[in-house]
């Protein structure tokens, strides 16, 4: 469970298990779970690419990045540090790499870590590059990340409420969601985001926003409702039986091995990332 302080891990796992068990009775959103997920951090060590920069002895820049955040939000601090060591680095030319693989800006940091990190060694060493910009990575100039983030929230609410809630919000509420993310302000973000979690008779959650990731392939989305035809709550296992009907896989979300019997509705309300999607990484059993 990377990115959660070690002294809190046992307590966090216990809280998750209790919440998952009691969620079958229809309990509301679990503050403790959402708060601890928000506080999850990953230690990252940024290094310059040796083939592009002559200052090979430049010390790495080390920082703790929220799992829920995105690399471009941390990048100004990274460049501020390296620009004191090397000739000025243009932000528009920067891309990041881990273990030979380009990192996609619009994926949450926690998703990239769960998807690509192949060992338990920390900090996570990420290489900063400026040449041969990869075609599969979108350039993150200006407000591109903010637009992408808000668009993901809109897509999630389209699935949940036919976009009724996000479209009824004012533009300053959209801005508050973004600012809450950038400035790492839990209360500011959730005072707006809680509206998107509504699940009442008048605004029931129709479908679960979920994205499934596997190494070496684009993510997949499954259109699935919270309940089946008999009224039974659908679970994470139901999704996996759709995407991998014959294979046994392990599901990781937020750095945690998630029980397959976990209800999707509970995950949508408590375990989603800030873009309101559940992001699940699948791996083969070892």
TrEMBL record:
Location(s) in or outside the cell: Preautophagosomal structure membrane
One protein family per Pfam: ATG5_HBR
Ranges where the Autophagy protein ATG5 alpha-helical bundle region domain occurs: 143-198
Keyword Transit peptide applies: no
Keyword terms: Autophagy, Isopeptide bond, Membrane, Ubl conjugation
One CC-aspect GO term: Atg12-Atg5-Atg16 complex
Primary location: membrane
Ranges for domain Autophagy protein ATG5 UblB: 207-282
Its membrane topology: Peripheral membrane protein
Domain Autophagy protein ATG5 UblA positions: 37-129
GO MF entries: Atg8-family ligase activity
InterPro entries, alphabetized: Atg5, ATG5_HBR, Atg5_HR, ATG5_UblA, Atg5_UblA_dom_sf, ATG5_UblB
Gene Ontology biological process: autophagy of mitochondrion; cellular response to nitrogen starvation; piecemeal microautophagy of the nucleus; vacuole organization
Subunit and partners: Conjugated with ATG12.
Its biological purpose: Involved in autophagic vesicle formation.
Family listed: Belongs to the ATG5 family.
Name recorded for this polypeptide: Autophagy protein 5
Natural source organism: Toxocara canis
Gene: ATG5
């Amino acid at each position: 469970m990377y990115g959660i302080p070690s002294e809190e891990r046992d307590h966090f796992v216990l809280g998750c298990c209790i919440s998952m068990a009691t969620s079958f009775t229809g309990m509301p959103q679990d503050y403790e779970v959402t708060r601890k997920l928000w506080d999850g951090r990953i230690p990252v060590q940024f290094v310059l690419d040796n083939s592009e920069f002559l200052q090979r002895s430049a010390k790495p820049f080390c920082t703790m990045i929220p799992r829920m955040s995105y690399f471009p939000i941390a990048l100004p601090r990274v460049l501020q540090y390296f620009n004191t060591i090397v000739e000025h680095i243009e932000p528009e030319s920067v891309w990041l790499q881990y273990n030979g693989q380009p990192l996609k800006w619009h994926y949450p940091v926690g998703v990239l870590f769960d998807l690509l990190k192949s060992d338990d060694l920390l900090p996570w060493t990420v290489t900063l590059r400026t040449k041969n910009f990869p075609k599969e990575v979108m350039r993150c100039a200006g407000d591109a990340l903010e637009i992408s983030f808000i668009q993901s929230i809109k897509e999630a609410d389209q699935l949940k409420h036919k976009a009724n809630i996000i479209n009824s919000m004012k533009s300053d509420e959209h801005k508050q969601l973004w600012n809450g993310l950038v400035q790492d302000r839990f209360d500011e973000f959730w005072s707006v985001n809680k509206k998107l979690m509504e699940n009442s008779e008048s605004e029931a959650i129709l479908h679960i926003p979920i994205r499934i990731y596997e190494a070496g392939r684009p993510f997949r989305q499954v259109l699935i409702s919270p309940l089946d035809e008999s009224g039974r709550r659908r679970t994470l296992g139901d999704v996996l039986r759709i995407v991998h009907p014959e294979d046994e896989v392990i599901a990781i979300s937020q750095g945690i091995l998630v029980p397959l019997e976990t209800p999707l509705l509970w995950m949508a309300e408590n375990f989603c990332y800030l873009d309101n999607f559940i992001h699940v990484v699948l791996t083969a059993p070892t």
